[in-house]
Amino acid sequence: MKHRQLTVSVMLLVLACTTSVSAEVYRSVDQHGNVTFTNQATPGAEPVQLKPLSVYGAPVLKTDVKSTASEEDKTQGYESVEIISPLPDETVRDNPGNVAVTVSSKPPLDSREGHRYQFILDGQAVDKPQTATTKVLTGVDRGEHQIEVTVVDAKGRELARSSATRFFLHRQTIFNPARSGGAS
Fold first, then answer.
1. 143 forms bridges with which residues in the sheet?
2. Which residues have CB under 8 Å from 178's CB, separation 6+?
């Protein structure tokens, strides 16, 4: 029984694959009742009238102008990115060299779309992009620095950038004569 079903299945598959090539199909039944389909006319074989195959073409792809436009809107949707702290030209006094940088954006960061803030100190990215609006920079050397913040998407593409904010870090030292109260 399985052999018969297998034979029929194979023949139907062969028919499906070759109908476009050969037009004639014959059906024959042997003395054991096995049904065979072939493209050669054998004694006792009957021609099989096949229904035309249903053929479906590939669907036509439409260019979705709206989705492209909305994608561009998502990437250019930030009106501004602003560094709230430190203020421009502010002097931060911290001996360990920690500087808290706070940023805001309009509209707020869309973390659902994978957007993140990337903090950039003196032209170098600091750590990985993050969703938090505050980043504590550690071990910053004394002196003048520039901080910028960019909004990046999930692929790391820059979507918006703040203006650079200059700040100064003042780290006191015990070697400062004015602090020791000694010499002057």
1. 169
2. 184
